[in-house]
Amino acid sequence: MSQEKILLTGGSGYVGSHSCVALCEAGYQPVIFDNFSNSSPKILDRLEQITKTKITLVEGDILNFNQIVNVFQQHNIKAVMHFAGCKAVDDSVKNPLKYYRSNVSGSINIIDAMKVSGVDVFIFSSSATIFGDLNVNPISESATFSPKNPYGKTKLFVEEIIADLFGSGCFSNLAALRYFNPVGAHHSGLIGEDPKGVPQNLMPYLAQVAVGRLSKLEIFGRDYPTKDGTGVRDYIHVMDVADAHVATLDYLLSNGGYLPINLGTGNGVSVLELIRTFEKASGHSIPWSFGPRRKGDAAEYYADPSLAKKKLGWSAKRNLDTMCSDMWRWQSENPHGY
Ligand code: WQD
After folding, report:
1. What's the CA-to-centroid distance between 274 and ligand 1, angstroms?
2. How many domains does the chain have?
3. How far is the C-alpha of 266 from the C-alpha of 123, rounded, in Å?
4. Which of 3, 259, 254, 8 minimizes the C-alpha distance to 110?
5. What are the CA-CA distances from residue 271 to residues 166, 239, 288 (Å)?
6. How far apart (Å, rounded) are the C-alpha atoms in residues 136 and 144?
7. Cβ of residue 268 lying under 6 Å from some atom of ligand 1
8. 271 occurs within a structural domain
9. Can you give the residue range of the structural domain that contains 57?
10. 235 exposed, middle or buried (CB, 10 Å; 0-12, 13-18, 19+)?
11. What confidence score (pLDDT) does residue 142 get?
12. Rg of the chain's alpha carbons, rounded to an integer?
C-alpha cells in the first residue's frame, strides 16, 4: 500500500474528483487544493462516503504562490495532478486573459512551488482541443497541434512548457494527458458532472433535459461530413480517464520520463447516436431540434488510443451504455447537482 500523498489541484472538479476516488482505490492519499470557482466543497462528504477514508481538502488558489508552497510544507507531497483551470471554450474566446492567467500563469505557479519544494512528478490535465480541426482521425500523439481557441492554446502552451522543462533536465517525471470527451459519473451516483449555469457540453445538457431542468436540446448542425450529418466525438467514461491518471502516476514513479498521451476510446459517436443511447439508459425521450452549426466546432474527433495501451497498459473499459447509465444515475439522484 503506497499511501504516497498526491496533490490534486482542482481536485473537487469533475475529472479531479473522480481521479481522487481512483487514487484512493489504488492506495494513494489525495490532498485536494481548490478555490471552488467551478465546484462545491460539499463533494468532500460524497468522496469520503465512496472511499471510506478521510480526505484532506485545502481551500486555495493556484494564483497564490504562498498558499501552494504552504501545502507542500504541510504535506509530504510525492506528485502533483494539476486539474485546476478554466475550461469553457466559448468563455475563453470572450475572456482570453482570464484563461491565460489561470491556465498558464497558474500552471507556472504550481511548477515553481514544486521546484522550491523538491517535488518533481507532474501530471497535467490537457485536452484534445490542442489538435484543432484536423480531419485526420483517429488522432494520435503525432498529429499536428493547431488549437482554434484560447482555451486550447493555453493547454498547448503549458504542454510546451512541460516539454521544455523535461528537455532542460529541471524535471524528469512529467505527463500531459489529453482528454477527448469525458462523460458519465462514478457508478455510485454520489459524484458527477455539475456544471455551473447552462451546460455548454452535450452530455450534461442531455441529462438536464431528461431530468426536466431544461426543455429541449438543440443539435448544432446536421450537415457535417459524418455518418449521420451530426458532430462525432470520442466520449470516454470519466472513471476510465481517472484510471488513466493512476496508471500514468504508477508509470512515472517507476520509470520517469515525459509522457504526452491521448486519452480516448478510439470510437467516434455522433450526437444522434448519443441521444438514442441516453434515451435507452434513462427511459426518457429527449425533445430535440436541429439548429445551425456552433462556431468553432469540428465535424469529427476521435483518438488513436494505442500509445496509452503500449506505454501504460491502459485502455478504456466502459462502453457508451455505461457512460449514459452512470450519468443518468448521478443526474436523476441529484437533479440540481450538489
Ligand atoms: C459535443 C458535440 C456539438 C451541445 C468540448 C470542449 C471542452 C473539452 C471537451 C476539455 C458537438 C454537439 C453540444 C449542444 C450539440 N473539455 N452539441 N448541442 O465540442 O467536443 O468540446 O470537449 O478539454 O469542454 O472542447 O464537446 O460536448 O460541447 O459537443 O449539438 O447543446 O455535441 O456540436 O458536435 P466538444 P461538446
Report:
1. 12
2. 1
3. 22
4. 8
5. 39, 21, 11
6. 10
7. no
8. no
9. 5-186+235-265
10. buried
11. 95
12. 19
Q: What is the pTM of this model?
A: 0.97
Q: Which three cell numbers stand for residue 257?
A: 520520463
Cα 204 from Cα 192, distance rounded (Å): 10
**Residues 30 and 53 sit within 8 Å (Cβ to Cβ):** no
Residue type, 278: F
Q: Is residue 51 part of a domain?
A: yes
pLDDT digits (tens, 9 = 90+) for 65-123: 999 999 999 999 999 999 999 999 989 999 999 999 999 999 999 999 999 999 999 99
Residue 255, pLDDT score: 97
What single-letter DSSP state applies at residue 101? I
75 assigned to some structural domain: yes
- Give distance in angstroms: CA of 298 to centre of ligand 1: 9
H or E, element range at 97: helix 96-99
52 CB-near residues (< 8 Å, 6+ apart):
none
Residue 306 in domain: no
The CB of 218 under 6 Å from ligand 1? The reply is yes
Which residue, among 106, 94, 153, has the nearest Cα to 9 in the 3D structure?
A: 106
Nearest-CA residue for atom 27 of ligand 1? 201
Helices (H) and strands (E) in the chain — how many of each? 12, 13
- pLDDT tens digit sequence for 5-54: 999 999 999 999 999 999 999 999 999 999 999 898 999 999 999 999 99
